[in-house]
Design a protein that fits this description.
heterodimer; A: 253 residues; mainly alpha; 11 helices; B: 347 residues; alpha/beta; 5-stranded mixed β-sheet; 17 helices; globular
Chain lengths: 253, 347
């Protein structure tokens, strides 16, 4: 089964690259750079840099740092808040309207305010990424708590458990799979907001989103796509790792 | 029944009678014909001056360098040349405008020479510059409180530019080169001009290099002071140009000719009636009269480009690693099509 799955994945890649190359020939390399041009553009960023001097690894680590810090900070706030909102009704009644109003606002809309509040540089970029991560984690935590079977909670109480025990030993483990899914989606969205977060005012001159902006300034479609490929691959690696982790951590399920 | 074909004499006779009867009418035929010819000639003459197809124009937001575009639109210079110009895009920076050019959404555009060179050299656009818009017109502004009195004092400071491969990027690097300052000693960051003044005010940046009227606005608002004008960094440096799609030039050169004439009229208007031009500048930038007046004193409007300086530009951009061009001289020659401005200059 595993082998045949791999064959299908490889076949899908071949087909995608084939179509990509075909459309590149059709529309011209300047509008849709071919896979080979994108690869060459990527090598150029790795060796010469974009802008020249700022090489790929610097961009990669700068973005990794922003995404991971944004993710951890947002999760550290969203999980406890989600548990509270799921467990205590009046907290949920109080915060739900605020959450539901803020949730649909795209992170890009926060960029000017983020710069105004936190200035140019990492804090505002991390804030934007954190915003993207925050809501999926929060909502999944709430729904995880909500979906914990009531009988389990009641049984715990009947057996003489305290409220804190119920939260720590019943509700949190019960909500854990949903929280884990929320974290995975949150991390994905964190990567998706990266370009918006690095859209303006990057102090260090490093970041994958910033790199794409520079490529646009220099009218290099191949390097824009190279930046997209790097972000896509990183997102894929993170997602894959997270799923493996999920399998191990949630083995009891 | 009489068969006229069997009796040619009679037929000829009657026909002759017919001809004679119509002969007076026949005099009118050439007259009518000539009248039609005349109408056709006149209409074709006016047609030559009128181009009904829409010409899609792009320019940069609140950039006083592009005042000729605003003047030509407001004073109806495009219309009087028979052009049906439609504003198809207003862009926050040159690279974005060049992307719209690449996608074929614009026919003509006012843009900085640097994004134009970069887009052309990297094969993104098939366009040529048919006239210059202005020379000089940018300034390096430092925060008012900042104890910076000369360029070397900028070492260790944060300086903002509107983007990579913009005219201001090239100017800043040339300034540091002239003053023998290593680029690593200065933190150069990218900010869009409207954000620069706020960032300077809150101390997030120490200086910025931007196009007018932003330097004049920072000075007018008591936020910054001009450390050096771009004319001092590089006297007479080329700045914005009027760019057209090569396809338009090839297929309808008379349209481009009319466009260049309207553009040169607008520049003449700015020189001759600066007060009226300032009012138009105010309308398009939303800034005060005093700011626009100060800004204009820093800009040189001239439709004829300096090709030697343009070639130097290409060299600088190439040395920065932004483009790779085999023959800079040839490239600099090919990026201009100056037949129409030369004609205007001769007249």
């Amino acid at each position: 089964m595993g082998k045949s799955k791999n064959i299908w994945s490889i076949l899908a890649c071949v087909i995608i690259f084939g179509f990509w190359h075909f459309f590149s020939l059709l529309y011209g390399n300047n509008k849709l750079p071919s896979p080979v041009s994108v690869y060459k553009g990527l090598i150029e960023i790795a060796v010469i840099g974009l802008p020249p001097g700022n090489i790929l690894w610097g961009h990669l680590f700068a973005s990794l740092y922003r995404v991971l810090v944004g993710f951890f900070v947002a999760s550290a706030i969203a999980i406890p808040l989600g548990l509270l909102m799921g467990f205590i009704e009046w907290v949920r009644a109080l915060l739900n309207p605020i959450v539901e109003t803020l949730r649909p606002i795209p992170p890009l809309a926060w960029v000017p305010l983020a710069i105004l509040w936190m200035g140019i540089g990492n804090p505002s970029a991390i804030f934007i990424i954190g915003l993207g991560t925050f809501f999926p984690v929060l909502l999944n935590t709430i729904s995880g708590v909500e979906n914990t079977p009531e009988t389990l909670v009641e049984t715990a109480y009947t057996l003489g458990a305290k409220q804190s025990d119920v939260v720590v030993k019943v509700i949190f483990p019960g909500a854990f799979p949903a929280i884990f899914t929320g974290l995975r989606i949150g991390l994905d969205i964190g990567w998706m907001t990266l370009v918006a977060a690095e859209f303006t005012g990057i102090r260090s001159g490093y970041g994958l989103g910033y790199m794409i902006m520079v490529a646009r300034d220099l009218q290099r479609a191949d390097q824009i796509m190279a930046g997209m490929v790097v972000i896509g691959l990183l997102g894929y690696i993170f997602d894959f790792t997270w799923r493996q982790l999920e399998k191990r951590v949630l083995q009891w399920r | 029944m009489e068969n006229i074909f069997l009796k040619p004499g009679k037929w000829q006779k009657s026909n002759l009678k017919f001809k004679l009867a119509r002969s007076r009418n026949y005099l009118f035929v050439p007259v009518i014909f000539l009248t039609f010819m005349l109408i056709f000639f006149v209409s074709s003459c006016t047609k030559e001056k009128s181009f009904p197809e829409k010409i899609r124009l792009g320019y940069l937001q609140s950039d006083i360098h592009q005042l000729p575009a605003f003047v030509a639109l407001e004073q109806g210079f495009f219309k009087s040349e028979g052009l049906n110009v439609e504003v198809a895009g207003v862009f926050p920076s040159g690279p974005e405008e060049m992307s719209a050019f690449a996608s074929g959404d614009l026919d003509v555009g006012y843009v900085g020479i640097s994004p134009f060179i970069t887009a052309r050299a990297n094969g993104k656009i098939q366009a040529v510059a048919v006239a210059q818009c202005n020379a000089e017109g940018s300034a390096l502004v430092v925060a008012k409180k900042e104890p910076v009195s000369s360029v070397p004092d900028l070492k260790g400071k944060t300086v903002a530019i509107p983007g990579h491969a913009t005219v201001q990027d090239i100017l800043l690097r040339r300034l540091f080169l002239n003053n023998k300052i290593d680029l690593k000693q200065v933190n150069i960051i990218v900010l869009k001009p409207p954000e620069m003044i706020g960032a300077l005010q809150t101390g997030q940046i120490d200086a910025f290099l931007a196009w007018e009227p932003y330097p004049s606005k920072a000075v007018g608002g008591q936020i910054g002071r001009v450390l050096t004008r771009s004319g001092q960094i590089w006297p007479g440096h080329p700045c914005c140009v009027l760019v057209v799609q090569e396809k338009l030039l090839k297929e309808r050169p008379q349209v481009v000719d009319a466009l260049v004439r309207a553009h040169s009229k607008a520049i003449k208007f700015i020189r001759e009636k600066p007060e009226e031009a300032i009012k138009i500048g105010q309308k398009y930038t939303g800034m005060d009269e005093e700011i626009i007046q100060n800004a204009l004193s820093n800009v040189k409007y001239d439709y004829f480009p300096d090709s030697v300086a343009a070639e130097e530009y290409v060299n600088l951009i190439k040395n920065l690693g932004y483009i790779s061009v085999q023959n800079e001289k040839q490239f600099a020659q090919d990026m201009f099509y100056l037949k129409f401005v030369e004609q205007i200059k001769q007249n």
